[in-house]
Amino acid sequence: MARRPLPSILSSRPALARSRDIARTAADGATDVLHPVITIARGMRRQVSWAGGWWGRTPKDRRAPALLLAAAALVVVVMMPYGPILGAVGLMASAAWMGRDRAVPAAPSGPSEAETGRLQSLYEALVPYLSAPGDPAPMYGHEGSWQQAFGSYEFQDGRLTRLHLRYPAYFTDGEADSRARVEQLLHAKAGRGREYRFDWNEEENHLTFVALPPLPTDVVAQRFVTSPGETVLGFTDPDSVQRTVPVTAGGETRDAPPVVWRGGARSTEPHLLALGQPGTGTTSLLRSIALQALVHGDVVVVDGAGAGEYAFLAGRPGVLAVEDGLLGASATLEWAAHETERRLIAVNRARQSGNPVAEDVRRPLWILVDRPTALTQLAAAEGREDPQLLLDVPLRHGRTANVSVAVVDQLDATETLAPVVISQTRARVVLGPLAPEHVAAVLGAPQRTTPAADVPAGRGYARLGTGPVLRLQVPATPDPFDDDAPETERVAVLALVPGAEHAADLPAGPPPDAPEGLPGDAAAGKTDLPADGTGDGTAGQEAVSASAVSAAEETAEAEAAEPVVLRKDAVVRTVADLELG
């Protein structure tokens, strides 16, 4: 039996297609005609959504005043001439603005051709280091692609700034030599001249390395927002610390991440050791610490180099002594040891009797020593006792007595540092261009970044106790009597000195001589105690005065004598043999 053809109404495909085209055309036309209405409706919906979100975020105690204010505004609009019409027009205009199409053209996804070539080149360079011959499915292979190993990446101006990569589990990431080879390769392939930080995730076999921007060098000495007992050593990367402080640099104020060293009785690192080559900014660091310490405490400065870098502090309020000679430095450090013992006795008596500690004991005392090894060499040549041994009591018991010690010296003189100085200074700073092994020898841990290509003055690394190694840039704190320093920096330093009434009037001639011994007013409150711990301190005050007078006489005799010449066998080891134990 032959099949009958279907009716034309059911089998006419062209007619159905024409119907769909007509309907689509009508819908497009209606959309074009009603586009303003659709836009306004979309905007009103967004306005209602925004109002609902604002109402949900508003606290309950503020909702009634908000409703009252809205009702008052509505009454004012209704009472105005043409107010309702203008209000409706404004509402529709704002709805049309909020309902507009805000589609942003999609950015091109994926790396460019040049970036793809750099990633593939870096992948192939890692193959000898992150592959094994017996791996059946190697993650890194000569015929592989970088997409199977590199998770994320970032480029800036055609240079790789961040890369997150995976490596096989059999890679010996627990060995320092294996990590160093990979880091050296990535440093070379990603581009030299920049600092890179490497973060190894040994648990998940991931490595992330980031190109770090250079630390700013435009921050000068100023009053930093810190608590009593806190000292800003310098500034570091924003993601390395958990706080920022406002700083003024270049005529503007911004937030900067500081490296804060905490002293006092609750500090775990009450003493500091800073090392560096000449011209790297160690003296500027000590000047910065002195200016910050004078805000809440007293300062004793011993300048072993004798270059007069701290003469601007002599005679200022809170500065008990500024000594640069062997005899004066020894007398000052001996007084500091007796003062620490006096404070310990006062703290012990106050705790036993249940009374508060006296105000002069609670006031912090800072002992700042620059180049103590130079004084050690002079003392050895003259057959005297090493002045560094006088730091034993302040270093060992300074935390309880609220005494902090900061020692600054050169790297090539570390062999002459006293063992007590090395063992009791758990806050460490190293400045200048150094090899990674030397940084690790000073700080006790390797640095997480590659060496910097350009190392300005005050640039280095810091480590507080057992914390991480941080990049550090010390604020510019030059000697205000140094004519070669920028005038703006000199004025900024002199403005921080207590008692400097006219900071802009810098001295044209040489600085005044530092007084020998301790000032009488300062020594009156910090006297020695008798051996039995009793008495009113009068005998101790007379002893200090007598020691100061004898020290001045001996200093005059020493100046009249012939200069001391160091022997050749007194030269210490070079930086290449640096070991701090």
From TrEMBL:
Keywords: Membrane, Transmembrane, Transmembrane helix. It comes from the Bacteria. Residues 515-525, 542-553 have a biased composition (Low complexity). This is FtsK domain-containing protein. The lineage of its organism: Bacteria, Bacillati, Actinomycetota, Actinomycetes, Kitasatosporales. It comes from Actinacidiphila acidipaludis. The chain crosses the membrane at residues 66-99. The keyword Transmembrane helix applies. The keyword Transmembrane applies. Residues 502-564 are annotated as: Disordered. Gene3D superfamilies: P-loop containing nucleotide triphosphate hydrolases.
